[in-house]
Amino acid sequence: MAGRRPVLEDPHHINEVFASEVAGAGLIHGNVAITFASLRFDEGPEGEPSKPHRIVVNRLVLTRQAAGQLVNTLQKLALDVATLQAETHHKN
Fold first, then answer.
1. What would the mean pLDDT of 5-13 be, rounded to a whole number?
2. Mean pLDDT, residues 7-21
3. Selection from 18, 15, 20 nearest residue 53 by Cα
4. 13 by DSSP, 3-state: which?
5. Is residue 72 in a domain?
6. Whole-structure pTM over 0.70, yes or no?
7. Which of 7, 32, 52, 85 could share a disulfide with 67, CB 3.0–4.6 Å?
8. What is the domain extent for residue 71?
9. Which residues fall within 8 angstroms of residue 54, CB to CB, at 6 or more apart?
């Protein structure tokens, strides 16, 4: 099967993660490590506003090859978004 990638299986029990920010990124033994975070609010004392806290929600470690694929995918997505915004702007 030279040149052909195996079929992608999509098990439905895998959790999805929402992150509101990339809290950090770096290299670990040549792999790209990314930490994602999100804001959460604790219930404060009655009558006082809730206070936000930044919480780590996921850590992702990618090989250099997978990190390159992610960069390429995000660049294509950014181009699609820019094209859509330009089309929408021209219609208005």
1. 91
2. 93
3. 20
4. coil
5. yes
6. yes
7. 32
8. 21-91
9. 21, 23, 37, 38, 39, 40
User: If pLDDT is split at 50, 70 and 90, which confidence band does 61 have?
Assistant: very high
Task: Taking residues 47-60, report their average pLDDT.
Answer: 92
Chain-wide mean pLDDT for the chain? 91
Take residue 47 and report the two structure tokens written for it: 């009558």
Nearest to 16 by CA among 38, 43, 31: 38
d(CA 41, CA 55): 10
Q: Report DSSP letters for 19-78, one per residue.
A: -SEEEEEEEETTEEEEEEEEEEEE--STTS--EEEEEEEEEEEE-HHHHHHHHHHHHHHH
**Total domain count, the chain:** 1
Encoded tokens for 5 = 């990638």
Domain presence at residue 12: no
User: pLDDT at position 92, please?
Assistant: 64
